[in-house]
Specification:
The structure is a single chain. This protein is 72% helix and 0% strand. The protein is mainly α. Helix 7 runs parallel beside helix 9 and helix 25 runs parallel beside helix 27.
Length: 550
């Protein structure tokens, strides 16, 4: 089901599918090139417009047809179904047409299309789920559960298969089977999941286990800030008052989102976006699919498109608070910061006990250089956490960064220490606090120990290697410092600070020509405004003898 490649080998009149020098081929060529370029940059709207335009001029060019279809799917165009019927060998077309058959109640045809998918690649996961849902759609519940049984009994897909089997049993009014299967799904979950929570709570309530559903809400809320924000009283009522998945077509949409999210997590946002679009065709305004599509667009550097998708999420959807947080980030990314802050303040007013809106406010204000305001937002967020646990370390770290940038080192150091108390082996924390001490000439031996712990966890992290090398330099262990700083420069060759540090170490070792080479390199790597004159002075005069405690 992989889309046509968009790496755009230099398309020219002799490119595949455009070899015939007909008038139509020449007329379509410009639009084809524009569409391929837009597709390679993940600009789905421009790609679809251009490739569909090219196809109208040259409707029989296979290359244009294939790319136009992929672009139409990626951009959610209605043309996709019409084009899919012309692509009998395409797995993506088969998936889309199976969905169209399901929506029309043609379950036998939908099942035949799903059975035709090869059991390899990503389809290996999706095919049994969709097959079970097509069987459920035609009323064959036993067959659907039998299809999923080998997966629910063990293996890496056990939790996912059990969840879908539970939903199938639930729709068929088999509450005991649904309860048994959803308990497997919950037990297999590696981390709290709002969607799983909503599905499971409803199934448990219909099985007469509403109290278990309530306890599940409480347990998952404690394990996830996102779940805690969205799992309020209204969400709990929604979960038990109706089915999160009420039909076989909605179940198919659920399966596509699950696989899409997994593929995005594996570094394939384009495939994730395709599956999100297929899901939204089956279930318009399906918030998990909309959120997945938006995240995939962000991954592909299209925040405006992501914002448009999220604007379609209903304000009363259980996921609306999480969507609001994501929208705020996108608005700020698009330099609409005041809109982002206003949105977060409205969210905060609606969820006055939740720390997330204030924490996000702090993040945006800190990134915009408004450190004092950021600290106030973080203060409010932290005040709402009764007993901070391991998962709260980023909040104390963020407040520490805001204090640090505001020139309040004692308060920053206290926050960094609190963050470390919550997560003692967190490499980011170990590196940041230890490096700050090294720069200040404080606690050098303690800093070295902390940095060695961080480096042991992340041996390929150039910034940690640099910090350790810099600590060794300040401690006077010059050969070891040079080894660490050389390794850091190999790992992060275009980091101005690392190259500057290596230059200092070379100079201290009497390797003056190499030192000047590193300093010149650092100047060419966009150092900070305050660093440029300092490095230029070293190039003129060498390293001051007091530079070891700079």
């Amino acid at each position: 089901m992989a889309p046509a490649a968009d790496s755009a080998e230099a398309a020219e009149p002799g490119a595949p599918g455009l070899r015939r020098h007909s008038d139509s081929g020449r007329g379509a060529f410009g639009a084809y090139l524009a569409g391929r370029l837009a597709a390679s940059e993940s600009d789905t709207t421009v790609a679809a417009d251009a490739l569909l335009s090219a196809l109208r001029v040259a409707p029989d060019e296979p290359e244009i047809l294939d790319r136009a279809f992929n672009a139409a799917v990626m951009d959610g165009r209605s043309d996709a179904v019409r084009l899919a019927r012309r692509l009998p060998e395409s797995q993506l077309a088969a998936l889309l047409l199976a969905g169209a058959d399901a929506q029309a109640g043609r379950w036998d045809r939908a099942e035949a299309r799903i059975r035709s998918l090869p059991r390899q690649g990503s389809a290996q996961i999706l095919q049994p789920l969709l097959l079970a849902w097509t069987q459920a759609g035609r009323g064959a519940t036993d067959a659907a559960l039998t299809t999923l049984r080998p997966y629910t009994e063990g293996g890496r897909l056990r939790g996912l298969a059990a969840l879908h089997a539970a939903m199938i049993a639930d729709i068929a009014n088999r509450p005991r089977d649904a309860e048994r299967l959803v308990r497997i799904a919950v037990a297999e979950a590696e981390e709290p999941n709002l969607r799983l929570l909503a599905i499971a709570a409803g199934i448990l309530a219909r099985a007469g286990r509403a109290e278990d559903g309530g306890r599940l809400f409480d347990a998952m809320s404690l394990g996830s800030d996102d779940v805690a924000l969205a799992a309020g009283p209204a969400s709990r009522r929604t979960a038990v008052s109706g089915r999160a998945v009420a039909s076989a077509t909605e179940g198919m949409a659920e399966a596509q989102v699950a696989l899409g999210a997994a593929l995005r997590g594996q570094g394939a946002p384009e495939l994730g976006l395709i599956l999100a679009r297929l899901s939204m065709r089956l279930r318009p305004n399906f918030a998990p699919a909309q959120l997945l599509a938006a995240e995939c667009l962000v991954d592909e550097r299209h925040p405006r498109g992501a914002l448009v998708v999220l604007d379609g999420v209903a304000s009363d959807d259980p996921m609306a608070p999480l969507v609001a947080l994501r929208r705020a980030s996108l608005l700020d990314q698009l330099d609409r910061t005041e809109e982002a802050l206003a949105l977060l303040r409205r969210l905060d007013a609606a969820h006055a006990q939740a720390p997330q809106p204030q924490a996000k406010l702090g993040d945006i204000l800190r990134a915009r250089g408004r450190s004092a305001e950021a600290v106030e937002a973080y203060d409010r967020a932290i005040a709402r956490i009764a007993r901070p646990g391991t998962s709260e370390w980023p909040l104390f770290f963020a407040r520490g960064l805001a204090h640090e940038r505001a020139g309040r080192w004692p308060q920053a150091e206290a926050d960094f220490r609190q963050a470390l108390a919550l997560s003692p082996e967190q490499p980011v924390l170990l590196n940041h606090l230890a490096y700050a001490w090294v720069e200040r000439g404080e606690r050098l031996q303690e800093a070295r120990t902390m940095l060695e712990r961080a480096a042991a966890q992340r041996p390929e992290d150039g910034n940690i290697a640099d910090s350790l090398g810099w600590a060794l330099f300040r401690l006077g262990h010059l050969p070891a410092a040079i080894r660490q700083l050389e390794r850091a420069a190999e790992l992060e060759s275009r980091n101005a600070t690392i190259n500057d540090h290596l230059g200092d170490a070379y100079w201290a070792a009497g390797r003056q020509a190499e030192a000047r080479f590193q300093w010149r390199r650092a100047l060419g790597l966009d150092p900070g405004p305050g660093d440029t004159p300092r490095i230029e002075a070293k190039l003129r005069n060498g390293l001051p003898t007091t530079a070891a405690i700079r």
